[in-house]
Amino acid sequence: MGGQREKDDDGDAALLRAVAAGDTAALGTLYDRHAGWLHARLTRRCADPEVVREVVQDTFVTVWRSASGHRGEAAGGWLWTIAARRLVDALRAQERVTRLAGPPLEAGLPGGGGHGVTAPSAEERVLAGLEYGDVGAALDRISPELREVLRATVVDGLSTREAARLLGIPEGTVKSRARRARAELRAALDLLNPSPLGGTA
Questions:
Q1: What is the pLDDT of residues 23-63, one digit of tens each?
Q2: How many whole angstroms separate alpha carbon 171 and alpha carbon 167?
Q3: What is the DSSP letter of 68?
Q4: Which helix (H) or strand (E) holds 139?
Q5: InterPro entries given for it (predicted)?
């Protein structure tokens, strides 16, 4: 089982080296291997199929441009990191449009599903918040090794095991750093917003 996983990882690494050298066929093979699960996983985070399709395409455009920057970590984790950040960009753009268009309840439901998709989900707000606004500013204040764990587990949506593989650290370290990261993040947010009611300066 582990041997098969390692073989797959080696195959992906070879494909990424070929992509970095400008091999479009290798990119196509990489796409065939990974686009399906990326699409499925992104769909769990975003209800708009058009956005999901664009994010998958953008992910592989990014892979084409930056394959030479792959540092040997598991290709699946690396691809998901790119895809999750492309999704954050898309959600951020959508949120700007929604703000300009008016209250979310007037934005109109794209028919179907019993889920309220007019407003961003809590997870989408967290994903977007980690990239801009007070949470993004607070994130910049915590130590880099804690920040990368928080990004892997919250922004990128990786499990503890996936984050451990991606970052090259034990699962127990991921858990302890995630706890410390949340505590530091809360403290940094308190510094940025000392009074929830907000007085005039």
A1: 999 999 999 999 999 998 888 878 889 999 999 999 999 99
A2: 10
A3: G
A4: helix 133-139
A5: RNA_pol_sigma-70-like, RNA_pol_sigma-70_dom, RNA_pol_sigma70_r2, RNA_pol_sigma70_r4_t2, RNA_pol_sigma_r2, RNA_pol_sigma_r3/r4-like, WH-like_DNA-bd_sf
Nearest CA-CA partner of 37 in 67, 72, 77? 77
Structure tokens at 176: 């302890």
Helices (H), 102-170: 122-129, 133-139, 144-150, 160-167
Tokens at residue 146, please?
């804690």
Q: Who has greater pLDDT, 122 or 156?
A: 156
Q: Lowest-pLDDT range, 11-15, 16-20, 67-71? A: 67-71
Residue 6, Cβ density class (10 Å: 0-12 exposed, 13-18 middle, ≥19 buried): exposed
Q: Are 174 and 151 in contact (CB under 8 A)?
A: no
Q: Compute the radius of gyration of the chain from its Cα atoms.
A: 19
